[in-house]
DNA sequence: CAGAGTATTCAAAGTTCTCTGAAACTTACA
DNA sequence: TGTAAGTTTCAGAGAACTTTGAATACTCTG
């Protein structure tokens, strides 16, 4: 199997995993195509051809991905077509967006605790644990992600110096 | 609105959020019922009545939840019915299970990097970043969760002494 | 070991979601 | 401003997933 075939295989495989995790199939395939593509950017037509899906499906996938920051439009002078790419830092951004959910979980738990007459009732015990856990994660995760960003940026610069 | 109604409302609301995030509706509702219930445990019949769903749906939901550690069967002497409860430490366990996914992401990125002729190609750059990010998270998340467990266990013990 | 009370399985029905293909819309250039 | 290239929208077909309800299997208890 050539390296190109291997890349395509890995892309389709990862798309499958993401689809099982709730992402739309076409959306997942567009995302992994961009991620594993040898090209810097891909056009909608490229994606249609590579994935054998309609332009409508590509349009929908692009919309969703752009909203969650997993795809960016690249200005392409001299081309009428939109060019898309998988943005640098997307993974970190994706995980940061999870904070939204953590925050919701934490709030719901607090409200529940208030309605449950404190942490000594069964419901109160469960909700207190839930609230504590999500508050903890909400406190700890953002600095962790920030630390990765710093580390990785430093590493990348070393690579660039070395050329 | 009474506190009981508020609890039920919060439960249904959270179930809706989880369902939007890909969890099956019946499964999410069973989970949040157990989480917000004033009782220590609930039976299948309790769940059927509270949620107005069939026993088949409850059975399916119980199966799924038990597999992911979000529900546990409680031995109930003197009752023929199974009793279910939301287990202590479930949230931490749930997050730990995400490590499986982190691990997969990290591996796929490595394999992709190998097929992409190193980090100086466009695909290589993207996959190197992805691999680095997930390897980092895989290294940092488990100790973080362990730390929460320790902290929370200590806190709970303080509550018990005082209680 | 018989029988009542529960839990689980499974086919069928219902529901929701996704993709396609065509039409409408937008944009860039002559 | 007209035209051609490209993108987005949307209704409808089809696929995939959920739930139900009845039949089956299980498990205590007398």
Short description:
Two copies of one chain form a homodimer. The first copy, chain A, has helices spanning 3-20, 25-36, 44-51, 55-67, 90-115, 122-162, and strands at 42-43, 72-74, 83-85. The first copy, chain A, has 163 residues and is mainly α.
Q: Uncertain regions of chain A: pLDDT < 50 for 5+ in a row?
A: none
Q: Tell me the major beta sheet of chain A.
A: 3 strands, antiparallel
What is the helix/strand order of chain A?
HHEHHEEHH
The CATH homologous superfamily of the largest domain in chain A is named: Winged helix-like DNA-binding domain superfamily/Winged helix DNA-binding domain
Number of strands of chain A: 3
Helix % of chain A is over 70%
At CATH level 2, the architecture of the largest domain in chain A is Orthogonal Bundle
Give the percentage of residues in beta strands of chain A: under 5%
Average the pLDDT over all residues of chain A and give the rounded result: 93
Number of domains of chain A: 2
**Estimated structural class of chain A:** mainly alpha
Radius of gyration of chain A: 21 Å
CATH topology of the largest domain in chain A: Arc Repressor Mutant, subunit A
Biggest sheet, spatial arrangement of strands of chain A = 1-3-2
């Amino acid at each position: 199997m050539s390296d190109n075939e291997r890349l395509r295989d890995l892309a389709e495989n990862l798309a499958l995993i993401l689809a099982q995790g709730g992402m739309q199939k076409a959306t997942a395939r567009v995302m992994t195509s961009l991620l594993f593509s040898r090209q810097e950017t891909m056009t909608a037509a490229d994606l249609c051809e590579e994935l054998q899906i309609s332009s409508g499906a590509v349009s929908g996938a692009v919309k969703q991905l752009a909203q969650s920051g997993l795809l960016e439009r690249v200005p392409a002078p001299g081309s009428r077509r939109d060019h898309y790419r998988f943005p640098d830092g997307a993974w970190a951004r994706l995980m940061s967006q999870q904070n939204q959910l953590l925050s919701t979980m934490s709030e719901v738990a607090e409200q529940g605790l208030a309605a449950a007459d404190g942490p000594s009732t069964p419901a109160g015990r469960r909700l207190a644990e839930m609230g504590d856990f999500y508050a903890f994660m909400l406190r700890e995760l953002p600095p962790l992600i920030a630390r990765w960003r710093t580390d990785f940026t430093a590493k990348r610069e070393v690579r660039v110096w070395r050329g």
